[in-house]
Sequence to fold (391 residues):
Amino acid sequence: MQGSFVKKRGNTWSAYFYVSDGDGERRQRSKGGFATKGDAQDYLQKTMHAVHTGEYVEPARLTLAEYLLDRWLPTIETSIRPTTFDSYTRQLKLHVIPHLGRVQLQQLSADDLDRLYAELLKRGRRDGKGGLSPKTVHYVHTTLHKALRDAVRKQLLARNVADAAGPPRTRQSGERELQTWNPAQIRTFLAALRGHRLEVAYLLAVTTGMRRGEVLGLRWRDIDFKQGRLAVRQTLGLVNYKLSFGAPKTVRSRRTISLDPATLAALSNHRTRQQVEKATDGATYHDQDLVFAKADGSPINPDYFSQCFDRTVAKLPVPRIRLHDLRHTHATLGLQAGVPAKIMSERLGHASVGFTLDVYTHVLPGHDQDAANQVAGLILDIQETGSDGSA
Fold:
């Protein structure tokens, strides 16, 4: 370790060593304040090992808030969806910066993160009425993990302390009992909305499994009435509390969905009514080619779409479910009707058939019994029998 040494300065010891900068120049670094020579030598030995293995990180007086707000968020803004960027920003500003913003980035520890997660679970709600859900706190952890991973890549940190933190466990896909409606309950809901300007929007949601933003972002040019299908090419969401159009959630979310005759007819009738509104308003109509819009043609707020659903359901003799559960209802009924999982996965825009099966297979217990009978029949040469015992 030529060039590294310890030296006594007054009543304490200091360690001196050299590191190379990006231009290959050797620059001296030091750290003092050690009570004994042995402490200084121990620090020097560990530091030089880090230098030689490429794990040494220059000390920086950078707080977590400065890194997250001034460095990390600005660099990722153009590489992710606007809704995702808005979500990251809100999570960090609401739940991380107030608690850990002043902590030096390089002094941040896994214990700091564990204490943060515990605090958020107990008292994390903005209204002061309890804690955040484990799912929300886990999302905070995921966001922090991404940010700290980038800090390691940029050599601002030697390691990602989030790797050693213990975020709350969230339910795995399929663990939560899905809340869905049966066909009779769907008909009850749709009957209650008859004549409502959003009636066809909810019909489309349940007959296609489309997400809220996909339904509200749908344009007339995305529907092929002759072929009986639509293309998901645009979504409508809220970014920093403002309406924003964007690309579908994932590559597989950009998909084509076949439509049944009844839904096609409903869409056609809806278009006729909208054309009357457009002709009535004339130049004041804000035409954005949206299938579902306000009377003046402007986009519908996604929160209003959900709230309208909730208010309607609350008045009906049906189980209380979320708007997103119409998507689960579509998938569940389709699979129970015998639609192949691959086809259903493509309709929903899932990342893979495996994900679809992971989420929905447990709602099809009869399929497991059929499999048991068929396999046993092959192995044991058992012929299926009727109810009277005949072959």
